[in-house]
Design brief:
heterotrimer; A alpha+beta (329); B alpha/beta (322); C alpha/beta (340); B: 322 residues; Rossmann fold; five-stranded parallel sheet; two-stranded antiparallel ribbon; C: 340 residues; alpha/beta; globular
Chain lengths: 329, 322, 340
C-alpha cells in the first residue's frame, strides 16, 4: 500500500551528553526542516498519504506549515506519553496498517522503539540523535525520494534492504528489552538521565554491531574486531582490569582509554548470561532497565531486527532502471 | 551519579514536605483561611528537590510565583513559610510578602517572585557577585515555560553567557502558562534548544523523574562551579493544581490528569528506592509521619501566631531614610 | 582638604574611582562603560574605547580591570536586574542606565525588584545599588533621550533619588549614594557635565536628603534641582538688580526630601516658586507645593507658582526644544509677578 509512516522523535539530541561531552543540541527546528524536505520529496513522487506520530513539540505540524502538498498528511490517533511508548505505539499502528515504509528521525533509541513493535515494514532511518550507529546522516530530500519510490513500489525495495540484527534481553527468562546495536551493563543503580559516557561505570557490553567508525560503546568492540550490520555475528566484551586497552571515542569529543578484559564473538542465536549484580542495563545507549542482583539476565543475538533500506544502493538501482527519467522528444 | 542513602532519605523527605505543604495550603485556601491567592507546586517536587540537592546554603536560587517548592528544597523554615502564607508576624517576611514573595536571603533563597521572568536578571546578579569575589557559589534560576517567553529571560541567558557566570537556568515546563498551552506560546516548541542561541548546553529532562534531574543538575551545577559557565535544563512535567487556587483547570483533560497521576514523581521515587532496597517501607512510613507532623506543626504555628502590628506598614521600606 | 577646580563629569568619575579604591565590592557596569570589550587593541592593551557615553573617559577600566568595570550587552532589563541581584548578595554595584528614558525597557527590575525587595522580604534584604543615568533636555536628542523623569522614581517607595547640580555636590552625593544601603537613582543632567567647580581631592560624602540653600534671600523662595538650579541662580542675579532678593533652595535629593529646609525658607520669604525641568503633572513641583500648602499655608502671601516643562514629550527642533525648557526669563517674570 502506498502510504508512508513517519516517526520523528522530538527528544533526540537533547540529553545530558550536552553537559558531559561535546555533543551539540540537535534542535527541533532543524528536525522540522528535515521533515519538510522529506514531505516535499514524497509528494513529488506522488505518494497519496502520509501518516505520522503526534508529538508535543509539533515537529510535523511545523514542517507542514505553509506547505502546499497534494498528499494527505494525517496524524495517528493515539495517547501521548511523551516518551518512547509513543514511538512504539505509532510503529505498532503502522505495522497493523501495513504502510509501505516507515521514515524515522531520531537516534538508535528511536529505531529500537520502532523495532519493538514492527519488524516487517522497511525503515528509512535518518539520524537526528547524538551518537548513532543505526540511522545514517542522510539528507531528508534524498531519504524522502527513496521512501517515496519504495512506498509506490517503483523499484522493488526488498532487494535493497537488510535485516538488522537484534539483541534480546531476558530478565528471569522474560524478554524485557531489545537492542539494535548494544546492550551495556552500567554500574549505576538508576536509569537517571539515561545516557552513558563514562567507561568506568560500564562492566559488560554485548554488541550486535561493532563499528570502528562510530562513537559510543559499539566502537569499543569495533576497535577490537569490526562487525558490520550484515556480519552474522555479534560480540561480548568484558571491561575492566584487562589485558587490552583501546582508545575509544565513547562520546562526542570524549575519547577514553578503555580497559577490556576479554572479548568473544557471538553467532546468531547465541546467548550471553550477564554477571549478576544490582545495576542498570542500557540498550542502544540509554539506561533502560534497573535490575537486581538476584535477577538472571541473558542476552541473545538474533536476526529478528527490522528491515532497513539501504538508501544509497536503492537509489543507484533506481537510476539504473531510469525510474525518474523521462525522455523528451 | 553521587546518590547516597542519606541523600535519598533527605530527598524523599523534601519532596514529601513540599507535597504535604501544598496540600495543606490548598485545604486552608478552600476553607477561606488564607488571604490573597496561592500558586501550588505539587507535581513538580522532583525538580526543586533534584536540583537543590546539589546546592549549599551559600548557593543562591531565584524563584517564581510558584515558589513554595523552591523554598522548602532550599531549606527555608517551614513554620515561617506557613506563617507567611497566612500573613502572620512570624512569617518569613513578617507577613509583608505572602505566598508570592517568600524569601530567605540567608538561606540563599532570593525570593519567590510575582513578576514572571524577573528571576533571570537577579540570578545574573548573584552570579556576578560570585564571579567578582571569586567564590565558588552557584546560582540556579528556576523559571517556568511562561517565563521562557519574557524578554528578561532571553536577556538574562545571553548576559550570563557573555559574562560566563556560574548560573544554571532550570526551566520548569509544566505545559501551561496560566491556561495557555506551551504548544501555543512557544513558537519553536522547545526551550532547551535555546541553549544553542546563547552558546550553552541545553538539555531536556523528564521533570517527574528525580533521578534524571538529580544526575543532570549535578553535572550542570558542577560545570558552573568549575567556572565553565551557564547551562539550560528544561524539565518537562506538570502541575496537579491550577495556575492559582480556584482555577478550574478546564484546559487540562481528564485523560491528561490521569496520565499525570501515573507519573507521580514521589510515588515513582518511592517505588524505585524501595525496590532497590535503598529505602525501606518502614523508613518511608516513618518519614511520612514525621513530615506530616512537621506540616501540622507549621499549621499550628501559623494559626497561633500574631498578626503584624499596624505600625509595621511603615517599616522595612528603607535601611535608612531620614 | 586640598581643593581644585574640576568639571562635574570629573567629579563623578572621581567619586566612583575613590569608592572603588575604598571598597572592593563596588563595581560598575552598563553599556560602554569601558567600551571595546575583548578587542585586542582595546581591552587587550588595557584601554577603554568610551569610558561611558558622551565621551566621558573615566579611565576606570584601565585602573580596576574588566572584572570590575564591565561592558554589558544592550540588555537594560538584564543588567539593571543583575545590579539588584548583585546588591542583595554582597556587592555594591553601580549600573549605568545611559539615558533615563530607557527606564521603559527595564522599569520592572527597578520598580518591582530593586525598590520592593527589602519590604517584600520583611527587611531581611538590602539592595545597596546605584543606578546612574543621564537626564535633561537641551542636547537636541529628542523625545527618547531627553527626559528628566526623576518624579516618577521619587514616587516609588523603596527608591532614593538624587539630582546634583554642581561638581562638589555630584562627588559627595555619589559617594554617599554608593555607600548607602538602599537603591539610589542618581540623575546626571547632561548639560552640566562641563560645568566647573571647586572640589576637594579627598573622599567626602554629602548626606542624602539634605537640601542646600544655594543663595539666601528674603523676598521669595525658589525650590529647584539639577540644571534649573543654575537657571534659578541666574534669574536671582537679575532680580537682585531690580531689588528683589530671592532664596534658591537646591533640593539635591528628592527622596528623601528635605522638607524642613523648604518650609523654613517659605516661612521666611512667604512666597514659593518651584522650578522643575520635569513634566508638570504629579511631579516634584506639585509635591513641593503640596507640602507647603499643607504645612506652611498660613505663611504664604501669594499663590505658589510652578515653572516646569510643559505636559509634552521633548521636541527635537532647536527652537522648539528651547521653548520646552523653562527659561531664566520665565523665572524672572514669575517672581516679579508677585513680588513687584
Amino acid at each position: 500500500m502506498s502510504t508512508i509512516g513517519i516517526i520523528a522523535n522530538p527528544a533526540s539530541g537533547k540529553d545530558i551528553r550536552r553537559l558531559v561531552t561535546h555533543a551539540s543540541v540537535f534542535d527541533n527546528l532543524e528536525k522540522s526542516h528535515i521533515l519538510r524536505r522529506v514531505f516535499l520529496a514524497i509528494d513529488a513522487l506522488g505518494v497519496p498519504q502520509v501518516l505520522y506520530m503526534p508529538d508535543y513539540d509539533g515537529l510535523v505540524e511545523k514542517a507542514l506549515k505553509g506547505l502546499k502538498l497534494s498528499l494527505k498528511a494525517d496524524q495517528l490517533h493515539m495517547d501521548m506519553w511523551a516518551d518512547e511508548r509513543d514511538t512504539t505505539e505509532a510503529a505498532r499502528q503502522f505495522c497493523e496498517m501495513d504502510v509501505g515504509c516507515i521514515i524515522t528521525l531520531g537516534g538508535d533509541g528511536t529505531n529500537r522503539a520502532v523495532a519493538k513493535a514492527c519488524s516487517e515494514i522497511p525503515i528509512v532511518a535518518i539520524s537526528t540523535g547524538t551518537n548513532n550507529v543505526f540511522p545514517s546522516m542522510i539528507e531528508g530530500t534524498v531519504a524522502g525520494m527513496a521512501a517515496g519510490m519504495a512506498a509506490r513500489e517503483m523499484v522493488d525495495v526488498d532487494r535493497f534492504t537488510y535485516v538488522a540484527k537484534r539483541l534480546e534481553v531476558y530478565v528471569d527468562d522474560q524478554m524485557a528489552e531489545i537492542a539494535l546495536i548494544d546492550v551495556v551493563v552500567c554500574t549505576e543503580l538508576f536509569v537517571g538521565s539515561r545516557a552513558l559516557w563514562d567507561p568506568h561505570r560500564i562492566r559488560e557490553i554485548v554488541l550486535a554491531r561493532a563499528e570502528p567508525d562510530c562513537i559510543g560503546m559499539s566502537c569499543i568492540g569495533g576497535l577490537l574486531h569490526p562487525l558490520g550490520p550484515r556480519d552474522p555475528q555479534g560480540m561480548y566484551v568484558r571491561l575492566g582490569g584487562g589485558n587490552t586497552t583501546v582508545l575509544a571515542p565513547v562520546g562526542p569529543g570524549l575519547i577514553s582509554k578503555v580497559d577490556t578484559r576479554e572479548y568473544r564473538l557471538l553467532s546468531l542465536g547465541e546467548e550471553v548470561v550477564l554477571e549478576p549484580a544490582a545495576c542498570t542495563i542500557a540498550v542502544d545507549g540509554e539506561r533502560q532497565l534497573e535490575v537486581f542482583a538476584h535477577q538472571k539476565i541473558r542476552v541473545r543475538l538474533t536476526n529478528r531486527g527490522p528491515r532497513v533500506v539501504d538508501v544509497r544502493r536503492y537509489l543507484y538501482e533506481a537510476s539504473r532502471r531510469g525510474v525518474l527519467r523521462t525522455v523528451v522528444k | 551519579m553521587s546518590l547516597t542513602k542519606e541523600k535519598m532519605l533527605e530527598a524523599y523527605a523534601t519532596m514529601k514536605k513540599i507535597r504535604l505543604f501544598e496540600e495543606k495550603v490548598a485545604g486552608l485556601f478552600a476553607e477561606g483561611k488564607l488571604p490573597g491567592f496561592v500558586h501550588l507546586y505539587a507535581g513538580e517536587e522532583a525538580i526543586a528537590t533534584g536540583v537543590c540537592a546539589h546546592l549549599s546554603e551559600r548557593d543562591y536560587i531565584t524563584s517564581t510565583h510558584r515558589g513554595h517548592g523552591h523554598c522548602i528544597a532550599k531549606g527555608v523554615d517551614i513554620n515561617s513559610m506557613m506563617a507567611e502564607v497566612y500573613g502572620k508576624a512570624t512569617g518569613a517576611c513578617k507577613g509583608k510578602g505572602g505566598s508570592m514573595h517568600i524569601a530567605d536571603v540567608d538561606k540563599g533563597m532570593l525570593g519567590a517572585n510575582g513578576i514572571v521572568g524577573a528571576g533571570g536578571p537577579l540570578a545574573c546578579g548573584s552570579g556576578l557577585m560570585a564571579k567578582t569575589l571569586g567564590t565558588d557559589q552557584v546560582t540556579v534560576c528556576f523559571f517556568g515555560d511562561g517565563a521562557a517567553e519574557q524578554g528578561t529571560m532571553h536577556e538574562a541567558m545571553n548576559l550570563a553567557c557573555c559574562w560566563i557566570l556560574p548560573v544554571v537556568f532550570v526551566c520548569e515546563n509544566n505545559g501551561y502558562a496560566e491556561s495557555t498551552p506551551w504548544g501555543y506560546h512557544c513558537a519553536a516548541k522547545n526551550i532547551a534548544d535555546r541553549g544553542v542561541a546563547y552558546d550553552m548546553p541545553g538539555v531536556t529532562v523528564d521533570g517527574t523523574d528525580f533521578f534524571a534531574i538529580y544526575e543532570t543538575a549535578e553535572e550542570a551545577i558542577g560545570r558552573a562551579r568549575r567556572g565553565e559557565g551557564p547551562s539550560l535544563i528544561e524539565c518537562r512535567g506538570f502541575r496537579y493544581y491550577g495556575h492559582f487556587e480556584g482555577d478550574a483547570m478546564l484546559y487540562v483533560t481528564e485523560e491528561e490528569k490521569k496520565r499525570n497521576r501515573a507519573r507521580d514523581p514521589i510515588e515513582n521515587f518511592k517505588k524505585r528506592a524501595t525496590e532497590r532496597g535503598l529505602l525501606s517501607e518502614e523508613q518511608i512510613a516513618e518519614l511520612d509521619s514525621k513530615v506530616a507532623a512537621i506540616i501540622e506543626e507549621a499549621f499550628k504555628f501559623a494559626e497561633k501566631s500574631a498578626w503584624p502590628e499596624n505600625k509595621e506598614v511603615l517599616t522595612d521600606v528603607y535601611v535608612n531614610y531620614p | 582638604m586640598a581643593a581644585r577646580t574640576i568639571t562635574f563629569r570629573e567629579a563623578i568619575n572621581e567619586a566612583m574611582r575613590l569608592e572603588m579604591r575604598r571598597d572592593p565590592t563596588v563595581i560598575l557596569f552598563g553599556e560602554d562603560v569601558a567600551g571595546g570589550a575583548t578587542l585586542p587593541h582595546m581591552e587587550g592593551e588595557n584601554k577603554e574605547a568610551w569610558g561611558g557615553v558622551l565621551g566621558v573617559r573615566t579611565g576606570l577600566a584601565p585602573e580596576f580591570g574588566r572584572n570590575r568595570v564591565l561592558d554589558t550587552p544592550i540588555s537594560e532589563s538584564a543588567f539593571i536586574g543583575a545590579a539588584v541581584g548583585a546588591a542583595s548578595t554582597g556587592l555594591r554595584p553601580i549600573a549605568e542606565l545611559m539615558f533615563i528614558d530607557f527606564l521603559g525597557v527595564c522599569f520592572d527590575q527597578i520598580f518591582n525588584q530593586g525598590a520592593k525587595l527589602r519590604y517584600m522580604f520583611g527587611g531581611k534584604a538590602q539592595v545597596p545599588m546605584v543606578v546612574r543615568s543621564m537626564i535633561g533636555a537641551g542636547f537636541r536628542a529628542a523625545a527618547q533621550h531627553s527626559g528628566c523623569l526623576y518624579s516618577i522614581f521619587t514616587h516609588i517607595p523603596g527608591l532614593k533619588t538624587v539630582v546634583p547640580s554642581t561638581p562638589y555636590d555630584a562627588k559627595g552625593l555619589l559617594s554617599a549614594a554608593i555607600r548607602d544601603n538602599d537603591p539610589v537613582m542618581f540623575f546626571e543632567h547632561k548639560l552640566l557635565y562641563d560645568i566647573e567647580g571647586e572640589v576637594p581631592e579627598d573622599n567626602y560624602t554629602i548626606p542624602l536628603g539634605e537640601a542646600e540653600v544655594k543663595r539666601e534671600g528674603s523676598d521669595a523662595t525658589i525650590v529647584t534641582v539639577g540644571r534649573m538650579v543654575h537657571f534659578s541662580l541666574e534669574a536671582a542675579e537679575k532680580l537682585a538688580n531690580d531689588g528683589v532678593n530671592v532664596e534658591v533652595v537646591d533640593l539635591r535629593s528628592l527622596s528623601p526630601m528635605d522638607g524642613d529646609t523648604i518650609l523654613d525658607s517659605v516661612k521666611k520669604t512667604h512666597r514659593l516658586v518651584v522650578v522643575d525641568e520635569d513634566n508638570p503633572r504629579c511631579s516634584l513641583a506639585t509635591d513641593v507645593i503640596a507640602l507647603v500648602a499643607d504645612q506652611a499655608f498660613d505663611y504664604l502671601d501669594a499663590p505658589c507658582k510652578m515653572i516646569t516643562a510643559p505636559h509634552t514629550p521633548v521636541p527635537f527642533s532647536p527652537g522648539l526644544e528651547d521653548a520646552y525648557i523653562p527659561s531664566v526669563e520665565s523665572i524672572v517674570s514669575t517672581v516679579k509677578s508677585f513680588t513687584g
